[in-house]
């Protein structure tokens, strides 16, 4: 999917204080990279996933607000986009999901933080998910 904010093949990026919305792809996507910090963003009404970590170990996602305004044109399969998803898709640059911290986020109408079993499915290791406020 296209991403409004994309970080690929780098280390130590910071994504902070953005408003990411109404995209026909992912809101914030981090792929094949380590040590990214995603802090204090407002992310809503994106197609697919609002914040997506794919092969992104050592990443921290904290203090973000992720929700839906119920704009059906951004729904996938009749539902709002996933709030925050972690996965390991097949790639030439595999980086298993480890030491990921996702906490202090507010997710409204977009479900909880998930680990998706798409692709390589190497598992989520030594990571902390929560506490997050989910409703």
β-sheet strand percentage: over 45%
The biggest beta sheet is recorded as: 5 strands, parallel
Mean pLDDT: 95
- What low-confidence regions span 5 or more consecutive residues with pLDDT below 50? none
Count of individual helical segments:
0
SSE pattern, N- to C-terminal = EEEEEEEEEEEEEEEEE
Shape: globular
Distance between the termini: 26 Å
Tell me the structural class: mainly beta
What is the gyration radius calculated from CA atoms? 13 Å
Helix content: under 10%
SS elements, strand count: 17
Task: Kindly describe this structure.
The protein is an all-beta fold. The protein contains no helices and 17 strands. The strands form four sheets. It has a five-stranded parallel β-sheet with strand order 1-4-7-10-14, with no helix packed on it.
Quick rundown:
By secondary structure, the protein is mainly β.
